[in-house]
Here is the input.
Amino acid sequence: MKQSEKIISGLQQDIVLPDIVLQKADDAFSRILAENEKGKQPAASQGRGKNSRHKKRKRFPVWARGLTAAAAVLIAAFGICAANPVMAAKIPIIGHLFSLLQDKISFSGDYTGYAEPLDGNVQTDPETGGDSSVTGNRGTSSYSQTVNGVTVTLSEVYCNQEALNISLIIEGNEDFQDKIMTNQFGKQSLFLDMDTDFSFRDTPVMAGSGNIEGSFLDARTYAGVWRLDLKDVLFDVSEIDRMTSEAEAKGEEFVVNQEVLDKYGKMLTLPDEFTLNIDLKRIEGMLANPPEIDWGMSKEELEALSDEEFQALHDRIFEKYGLNKHPNAMQHYWFEGPWTFTLPIKVNTANNRTISVNDVNEAGIGLESVTVTPFEIHINEVYLNHDKADYFPVVLDAQGKYIDSAGSDAAFLPVADHDISRITVYLCDYLEYMDELKGLKYEDNFRELLEERAVYKKEVVLE
Here is the structure.
């Protein structure tokens, strides 16, 4: 598949581009990608995703990233097929969203006894004293705000030592269910463009994707759960940022690599209680029926353009339609905020445990520990003299069943529907896994392939 086709296919129902435009763009993509692969790793801000598997991903030019950024975070979206306004009328929604959504989210399970309502009580309508309906008045609450006719209500919080989960409802100022793209799995999702500030950090942190898993309860009401892996929050790169700023002031380049991250980055301790400030600037979704672009030329005329002429046309088209901006009316539907919230968070360590392994093979590759919560497993790998991004963790449960990662990091795995009394952890060469093994993960002989190909294997008893 050509580079341009890979990018456009990720958009699915997004902007329709003529074949000749893809052909013209493909050469440009290939050249830029080749140049980027030869370049140095960008500085400081790249260090925030220390544990992610995205370092091997190719970096696209600015205008291409504008097309793909929102699509990338929407692919894991899901839906509740049975959800409807009748359901909304019968269930006291606020304070009970996890009960409604817990079987549908990626890290599924019974959140009863774990998720805590933010107000401590089901909200009441100030006029009637009764339970507020989904589409009705939210009552008085510091966790519900209406901006530009759009109401955002934060419902419950569950935070363990690995992840923070917040349930919320978004009530639009118009029907917008039919405006949001349904992905290839028949599901819809929204994206929260927000800044987060944790009280135990000296500086704000850009952590997580902002993607929320959820479903429309009616044409203008969306309920969902935002989940944040805490690894990025707890990894402090403030010293690296300071060094980068100093280098830039001197006109020098400061390259952040794994050695710099290991030396100057530091892990923070998660306190038992902390405060989270959220500045929700915008709520976005991909358009279900984006308008087509008028290139102003026939296919034959486009084919006749030189590379320079095509690039000039491309730049004019993208500026004309605002495709060099995010969000833009050609691709996105969004609500402008801001909605601001301050949340008290208490860490719930019930049924959390960490099993120390501290095992490394002769190559310096191994496993430090495995952390288990009621909803996830976190694999903590060890790479001495190796780049973590060069390897990919694969985990099988006690029955030999493949456990598919559900979050943005392959080291975080859901436990639902798996026998995790013991697990087997395999560490594989990243490229070999992606190119050869990944497509075979549900085959009967997958375990045998892992036994042959993995650079490291360890069985860990969890119960």
About this structure: The chain has a mean pLDDT of 79. DSSP finds twelve helices and 18 strands in the chain.
